[in-house]
Amino acid sequence: MDVNDSNPAISAIGKCIAIGVRNFVICSGARNSSLIAVITSIDNVQVYNHPEERSAAYFALGKSIATGEPVAVVTTSGTATAELFPAVIEAHYQAAPLVMLTADRPVRFRGKGAPQAIVQHDIFGIYAEHDIDDWIARGPLHINVPLEEASPVGLDGCSISLPNPDLVASLTSASDHHTELFQQFLNRPGQCMVLVGCLPLSWRDDVKRFLKRLNVPVLAEATSGLREEFPRCCVPDDVARVLRIGGVPTDRLWRDLEEKPGVEVFSVSPNGLPGLARESSVVTSPCWNALDVPENFNECHYDNSSLDELLCAYPESEPSWVRRLSEYIPEGSLVFLGNSQPVREWNLAATLNSRGLRCFANRGANGIDGCVSTFLGLSSCEKEAWALVGDLTALYDLAGPWIVDQLPHSNRRIVVINNGGGRIFRRLPALQKFNPSQMQLVENAHSFSFKGWADMWGMSYRKVAALEDLRALPDGLLLIELFPSLEQSDDFWHSIKS
Length: 498
Ligand SMILES: Cc1ncc(C[n+]2csc(CCOP(=O)(O)OP(=O)(O)O)c2C)c(N)n1
Prior knowledge:
This protein is of the alpha/beta class. The chain has three domains: 8-171, Rossmann fold, CATH 3.40.50; 176-290, 3-Layer(aba) Sandwich (Rossmann fold); 307-497, Rossmann fold (3-Layer(aba) Sandwich). The protein is built from 17 helices and 16 strands. The strands form three sheets. Strands 12-11-13-14-16-15 form a six-stranded parallel sheet. It has a five-stranded parallel sheet with strand order 2-1-3-4-5, sandwiched between helices. A five-stranded parallel sheet has the order 7-6-8-9-10, covered by helices on one side. The N and C termini lie far apart (54 Å). The model is unreliable at 154-159 and 167-171 (pLDDT under 50). The chain binds thiamine diphosphate. Residues 339-341, 366-369, 390-393, 419, 421-424 line the site of thiamine diphosphate (TPP). Thiamine diphosphate binds at residues 339-341, 366-369, 390-393, 419, 421-424.
């Protein structure tokens, strides 16, 4: 939406407040100075500043996932607005309420090539809602604010009231129709199993209670928050129906469903997207407590595989390190899994002991950008939080730690698993025939260390090659650079395949 009132800055921010925005991440410029003036004049809102819009937007995304509330990132005009795009896409697929409040030049400049006047209206296309009246508090909302040159700040008459909780609640209420469709799926015959991807925090208790009642095989990924509740099960041979709850699962099983049209797939997904190209059904908002669970569902059979033996055989491999970290990280911590490999390693190898670790990841669009910032947004009110990110993933977000000085002091640990490039590519069947120089190119192989990055932001630094190196960690922000054995990691993955 474009805001076109007599005081567009006040009007736009009033709308943000009305939909529940309490946190503003400001990326300053001249064009958005009146927005900044209004925001900083309001009581009871939290203001952050960040000079880098891409990181800022990811920080806002993390904060909005953590709170379940809309969080606004505020930019000036031009490419500053475009920098928000990756986080907007991620928020779209995670159905996270990210609000982009962007200053624009007046409408008459649009499409003319005038200085700092790119076409911002609808710039995020299908990834963001542009009409506040159609926004259902899920996914991104873009509020574009054309502002006159040297627009006087003019705060007279600025009356911005606090959010109306009833309005926000009514936007996210359950749908009878979705409940009915879900019930019909449950009532149909045939062996059923459940795949659980990333769950919004507000869903977790309901889904856990529902799955305990359902009593069928469940594969719950770490980002569901339910992995330890439902230990990994055998996949029944005769699965006729798959129920997927939450974000798109990272497990290979999900992709394989594309080629199994005979298996009925029903998704309960926050973003309303099926996550498969083949035919399937999807709902977004069932009433979990209203669902009847048929009595004839089969019980689960758990599979204690030979994983532990492999972890012992390759103690310095990445999966063994991930197991060790999952046992070492203090109970109750928030854990952010940055890129595909730590996500898979955690799902596979992390301890199944219930340690109250709460796992998150940006698995909406699987980008490796913005992970440090998303982690910092997610952990902004946590006492102890750990991120596990690959080296290239860390390189993408070097400006992320800017925000740390604005957050309450706490133990934030960024573990960079430095394996000298994008090692995940080594495991892709399609790349097995690449020669070493092609592989080096694909992996972006390097031998950089992250010590200098830690120094730049005043992070404590610990190089870790053995468990003893994790003893007596200093308080506060800490960069842990972990060097796993590349050879053992390759051998581990090779053995698990065979
Ligand atoms: C923004 C973006 N660019 C490229 C990719 C493709 N990609 C997926 S994983 C990966 C490598 C990640 O490397 P690293 O962070 O070092 O982790 P590792 O694979 O070594 O565990 C790349 C480039 C992506 N997912 N997102």
